[in-house]
Structures are given as C-alpha cells and as structure tokens.
Amino acid sequence: MLLARCGPPTKPKFNGQLIIQQSYLPELHQTAWSIYAPSAAKQTGVTNNADFINRLRKYPNNSIKLLVIDGHGSSANCGSSDIHLDTLTDEEMAVLISKLAPDGEIQIWACDVAATQDSRQRIQGVVNRLGHPIWANTRFVYTPLGGFRPGEGLESLMMLRGPWYFGLGDWHYESASSDGTWLQFKPGQPVPDGGPDGPGVGKNHGKKPKAPPAKPSQSQTPCD
C-alpha cells in the first residue's frame, strides 16, 4: 500500500498585518491580540526606536498594510512609551516608509496619544512626514476585545497602567476598545478636532479601526 507523504506545514505567509508590542505589556493583553488577529505577524518586547526599525527590516518593502503600535501611551508620545514616531531620524523614517504598502496605515493602540491639541499637532506632523494615515485615541485604550479598569476614583491605585487595567478595588470590564475618540490623521489634511484638551467623551466616537480577518492563511508543502 502506498502512503502519501506530506511535508510539515510551512510558516504562515505574511498577510500585510504587523502588530508591534512594546516591552512589559501584561500577558493577558498580548493574548487578546493573538485571539483577535491570529493571522497577523507579531513582534513583542520592542524596547526603543532602533529596535522597532530593526524589526521592520525583516519584512519586504511595500508589504505592510496595517501596522499596529501596541503599548502604554501619553499625550507626550506619538506612539508608545518605548516607540516615538516623532523622534525617528530621517534614515529610520525612510525605513518605515519603505516597508508600508502604498495604502498602508498605522494604528496606535496606546492611551491618551491624541488627548490634547499639542499632541494632535504632533501626530499630524508625523503623518505629513510619513505620507500615510495614522489612527490615535483621545483617552484610555484597551484591546480590540475590551479590557478591565478600576472603579471610579480608584485610578491612583492602578497597578498597571495601559490597555489592561488592574486596580485595587472593584474591577469593571469594558467591552469597547476605548473610553475616548478614535481620530484618523491624514497627510496634508487639517488636524482632526478631538474636542477640548483632556479625555474624550463617550466610547468609540469616530470610525473604529477596521478589524483584521479572523482566520490565518497558511500554506503547506504538497503531498507526494
């Protein structure tokens, strides 16, 4: 009897979606992205701009359609606390531009990045230099599957500040991806209006970033 011989599955092909996760993110947060975007490529533990650019060099030019920067943020950072798009050198920016597809965009999943007028001006400056759209949020950002945050008045007792919240006291699960407003910044366009400086109002105002496809694409070596 002849038995078919199949080789082992090959590594899933890169589908144009890349999630960059900064260092010291909670494990549950990383798990949420693995569930939400199983087919996306992931680079974890990214520590600074140089590390970020070196990770990007692994991917073909013009191949990244969606670049997610996932981490802790503030209105002082265009990116995360470890990745600062506004301080990229000309050489580093050239690498980033070369890796993005012509229709590629960046989503910044970090808190408060677009919380103030100054921060929104900073993002717009990066977008004009980059030539690609960037999404950012005006307030707390969780994960695409939501996240936990402490009860009102307990923010000062947070043990971890970021897209997953663990407070001392009552925990509240938020099914939304954020507490603020998602803003899209486009090259050469006016700075989006995020309202007055400070937290955005409501949940998921603005167009919510598009979800990656749920199923991974994987090719296998053919059987003999």
Cα gyration radius (Å): 19 Å
Report the major sheet: 6 strands, mixed
Please identify, by name, the CATH architecture of the domain at 17-147 and 178-185. 3-Layer(aba) Sandwich
- What spatial order of strands do you see in the largest sheet? 2-1-3-4-5-8
Low-confidence stretches: 152-169, 198-205, 214-224
Oligomer: single chain
Structural category is alpha/beta
Helix fraction by DSSP (H/I, runs of at least 4): 10-25%
Number of DSSP E strands: 8
User: What is the count of helical runs?
Assistant: 4
Highest-level CATH class of the domain at 17-147 and 178-185:
Alpha Beta
State the end-to-end distance. 14 Å
Protein architecture, described:
Mean pLDDT is 78; it is low at 152-169, 198-205 and 214-224. Helices cover 19% and strands 20% of the residues. The chain is built from four helices and eight strands; from the N terminus they run βαβαβαβαββββ. Helix 3 (90-99) links the parallel strand 3 and strand 4 (100-109).
